Protein: UDP-glucose 4-epimerase
Organism: Maylandia zebra
Amino acid sequence: MAEKVLVTGGGGYIGSHCVVELIEAGYQPIVVDNFSNAVREGNVPESIRRIEKLLKTSIEFHELDLLDRPGLEKLFKKHSFSAVIHFAGLKAVGESVEKPLLYYKVNLTAFMNLLEVMQAHRVRNLVFSSSATVYGDPQRLPIDEQHPVGGCTNPYGKTKYFIEEMVKDHCKAEKDWNAVLLRYFNPIGAHCSGQIGEDPQGIPNNLLPYVAQVAVGRRECLSVYGNDYDTIDGTGVRDYIHVVDLAKGHIAALKKLKEDCGCKVYNLGTGKGYSVLEMVKAMEKASGKEIPYKIAPRRGGDVASCYADPRVAEKELGWKAQFDLERMCEDLWRWQSMNPTGFSNGTC
């Protein structure tokens, strides 16, 4: 019988791609989401409906906010989970600077509810969706897992750091717990079918969805926040990773949990950094469209450069990013061109 894995935030961008990989790897994902970052289609996220159609399967879904402790208890009484993959949470850097209390309340309280309910129901295996923002302004590049953490430049990053610390302390106190903390760099791209991808609600907070929306004609112009950084062309440099590669990293993490690994930390990135303007050019090539942009002031909380040293994940998880920048942009453009207004009016 397939192992049941609870996927929180499974209707969102990364979560939905992970659901695909879980099903294809033989797991049974049970998905919960509160629709804060997912488009509704009846009683389920549109992303989950499309995955069901794509893979010719059915997926159990529950509309649930992790702040709803009784609802969470009810779910854990119904199912015997082998592990939890935790994606759910608010995730916009700029918004977190403007609304820090909201981020602390939602991200931290929800996670504490989840951890306590897991403990009560003896579910002791966790994969946590962390972020390279825990490293703050990099002291050295590329960033490996031994790089100092905690000097976060924004409240979003601090919530990821605080959750990591909770997990580490809990695993230290409870020796039968296992956790893998995955520090993502910058996921982009979409499933090769073009049926699921990133569909931000409102104005995109991340670079590539905004660039893609400019290319498809949904938005007039891209704002490039800062061109005076100490980088190749003055714009911010990031490590962009294909979302499918990222999703496969979670399957590798689940396998690691089987080794009674304790608490482990891994970077998921490619090890290569690209500037904002380099990404604009790559998307122009993939789309065949000119992407107009203007230079705007720097955003609070941004750093100049951030890219990974992913060798530990390759050594210990047997995982390595497979898709190059060209493929990332091609898959992103396929998703955006097939779904010009996102899930609300796509081609599925």
Notes: The mean pLDDT is 96.
